[in-house]
Amino acid sequence: MKLTRYTKFTGDLSTSFGLDDLMQALSDFLLDSGYQDPFSPFQNMDDSMESLREAIRQALESGDVLDEDAQEQFDSLDEPQVEELIDKIVQRMKDENFLNAEEPQEPGQGEQGEGNGDARFEVTDKGMDFLGYKALRDLLGPLGKSSLGRHDTRYEAAGVETNGSSKQYEFGDSLNLDITATLNSVFAREGAPDGSGVLNLEYSDLHVQQADYQSSCATVVLLDCSHSMILYGEDRFTPAKRVAMALAHLIRTQFPGDTIDLVLFHDSAEHIHLSQLPRVKVGPHYTNTREGLRVAQRILKSSGKDMKQIVMITDGKPSALTLEDGRIYKNAFGLDPLVISETLEEVSRCKRANIMINTFMLAQDFQLVQFVQKMSAMCRGKAYFTTPQTLGNYLLMDFMSRRMKTIN
Fold first, then answer.
1. Is 310 strand, coil or helix?
2. Which of 55, 77, 97, 257 is deepest in the core (most CB within 10 A)?
3. Residue 183 lies in a domain
4. Maximum Cα–Cα distance for the chain, whole Å?
5. Domain tally for the chain?
6. What would the DSSP string read from start to end of 156-198?
7. Environment class of residue 141 by beta-carbon count within 10 Å: exposed (0-12), middle (13-18) or buried (19+)?
8. Can you give the pTM of this predicted structure?
9. Mind listing the pLDDT tens digit for each residue in 318-354?
10. How many CA atoms lie within 13 A of 310 on its CB side?
11. Over the chain, what is the mean pLDDT?
12. Segment (H or E) for 269
C-alpha cells in the first residue's frame, strides 16, 4: 500500500515530494549497466550532469514522484521554469547528501571554456545505502517475514541472548546471572533460609545464563562484469548490482561486525569500493574467474574474521587466465583445460583457507553446470542456477538461512 506523505507546502515544487521517491524513480538510471534497453526512458545516458537533469525531468513527467495537485502545477510550467525547478532539485539532492556533483561551469570558465558538458555526478554513501535498502525491501517483500540475527555457531558462551541453559560462573564471563540456579545452589548447601532472610552467597554458587556464541563473517561479492552479462537480449548485470547492494545493506544493518567487499572480474579483476557500484558498467568480453578468486582471497586473508565466504555471481564459463608474466591468456571457445585446471586449483586454495564459495549462475549450459557443481563440492559451497528475476530471492534467503542455523 502506498503511503501518504504529509509535508509543509511552501509553494515550491522542489520541496513538495520526498527525495526517496525521486531516488526510487531514478534507480534504473543510477544503476545503468550499459544495456541498451529500447523501452527504457534512460537509454543513451551517462553520468554527466546533463543526463542527470534529463532523468529528473522524465521522472517528474512520469507522474511517479509528484502528487496529483503538484503534477498539475508542474504540467503548467514553461521551459525556463522547469529548468529552474530542476536546478533546485539537484541542489536539494546535494544538500541532503544523496549525490556529489560538480559545479557547472559557465562558458569561458576553466581552461577550455566549453561550458558544463563535462560536469559529472556520483552517488554518495547515503544514496548508495538508500538504493540498497530499497532493493532489499523489494527482494524480501514477496518472501514474507524473516527473523534476522547474527551468525550462529555450535559453541556456547555467557552472553545476553540466552538459550535456556546455565553454567557456573568463571572469571571473564558476562555477569548475566541465572537467579534460579544461583539460589538453588545456596539452598542445596545451607538448606532453607532462617528468619533473618540473610543468604550466605559464595563464589561457587554463582551461575550465569548460557548464550549461543556468535561469530563475525567476512564476505566478498565476486561479480562478473564481462560483456556477456548484457548480451543475448537480457540485462543480467543490473539485477546482480541490485542484489549486491541489498546484501551490503543487510549485512550493515543486521550483522554488526561483519564486512563486505566487492570484486569485479572480467579479463582481469579488481577490488572496488561499494560506493562505486551504481555506475559500474560491463567491460571486456572474457571471464577471468581465477583472478577474481585470487583477489577475494587476499581480502579475506586480511579481514581477520572467523568465517569467510565468497558469493560469486556469474553467467559464463572461465575463459581467461593471468599468466605468471602478467599476460592474459584467453580462450572464448569451450572449457579450456588450462583455464579450468588453474581455476580449480584456486578453488582448492580457498578450501584450504576455509573459505566457502557459493555460486549463483545465470546460465544453464550443460558443461558449465558440471564445472560449477564440481567447484562447489570442492569448497563445501552451493551452486544455484537461477535467473535475473529470481537471483535476489535465492541469494538473500540462502545468506540468511545459513546464519540462522548452527555451523558445524
1. strand
2. 55
3. yes
4. 95
5. 3
6. EEE-SSEEEEEEE--TTS---B-HHHHHHHHHHHH-S--TT--
7. exposed
8. 0.65
9. 999 999 999 999 998 778 999 999 999 999 999 999 9
10. 37
11. 79
12. strand 269-272
